[in-house]
Specification:
With 277 residues, the chain is mostly helical. The protein has helices at residues 2-9, 11-28, 30-33, 66-102, 104-119, 122-133, 137-148, 150-163, 167-174, 179-215, 226-232, 242-268. Belongs to the binding-protein-dependent transport system permease family.
């Protein structure tokens, strides 16, 4: 856990971790703070913030509690962001490890697939995928992961290409270790740190992509999301700007927290090349 201590010593890492901890706590305590369905009509429509103690952040055009939507939206954003990042990281690590360790035609074939996915902007790929397959949370997670796995794959390959020439890898070959065992036990653990630092950036991108899809009406309509809350406030932006400003501010703070955490994690892991990659 020495990396965690180094992370907490960096101002960026400590601030980012504090923001993410508060957001995670808010999401976990959402059923306690605002029990029930956050999409149900709870009071009079368009109550301004702090006008009614029962609705500290007011209500939207349908009379739904903005605070409840904000809390449950935090759960959605963090869950989708973490799930999409995890899926992208697993796929990217597998492809990058296979390409870098195998080399030759396998490397060339896998890298051409990576190039094909990198050509298409991640958001456009997610938009096309969700529009074609359908709207649900697993589909949104998969769509975001498909648009973001190429960067971890390329970074993993670069790390593997450098590590596979090290003396301890050559020694493992000499003593007869199986190639799969060498890849998983000797190479992968040493290739992980810069890729893990990149994962925080992927989480931030996934949260923004999910919010954008929800804003366009392509998110799961049965759950509260910050993107759908921002879209809900578009038509009354002049008279009730808080409907869009509050979830928009929460989204900005979340992305800021993830960015700060990423910066601190990069320093804690001793990686200087992640941001350049």
């Amino acid at each position: 856990m020495s990396w965690l201590r180094r992370l907490l010593r960096t101002p960026e890492g400590a601030a980012g971790l504090a923001i993410l901890f508060v957001l995670l706590l808010a999401g976990l305590l959402a059923p306690v703070i605002s029990p029930g369905d956050p999409l149900k009509i709870a009071g009079r429509a368009l109550l301004t913030p702090f006008a009614d103690p029962a609705f500290p952040l007011g209500t939207d055009r349908l009379g739904r509690d903005v605070l409840a939507g904000l809390l449950y939206g935090a759960r959605t954003s963090l869950a989708v962001g973490l799930a999409a990042a995890f899926s992208a990281m697993v796929l990217g690590l597998c492809v990058g490890l296979a390409a870098g360790f195998a080399g030759g035609l396998i490397d060339e074939a896998l890298m051409r697939v990576v190039d094909a996915f990198q050509i298409v902007p991640a958001f456009l790929l997610a938009l096309a995928f969700v529009s074609t397959i359908g709207v649900s949370t697993p589909i949104v997670v998969l769509a975001i992961a498909l648009g973001t796995w190429a960067d971890p794959a390329r970074l993993t390959r670069a790390q593997v290409l450098a590590i596979r020439e090290q003396d301890y890898v050559a020694s493992a070959r000499v003593i007869g270790m199986h190639p799969a065992e060498i890849a998983l036990r000797e190479i992968l653990p040493n290739a992980l740190p810069p890729v893990l630092a990149l994962s925080a950036t992927i989480v931030a991108g996934a949260i923004l992509t999910e919010a954008a899809l929800s804003f366009l009406g392509l998110g799961n309509p049965n759950i509260a999301t910050w993107g759908s809350m921002i879209a809900e406030g578009r038509s009354v932006l002049r008279s009730a700007s808080y409907l869009s400003v509050i979830p928009g501010a929460a989204l900005a703070v979340t992305v800021l927290g993830v960015h700060l955490f990423s910066e601190g994690l990069g320093k804690a892991l001793g990686d200087d090349g992640v941001r350049a990659a």
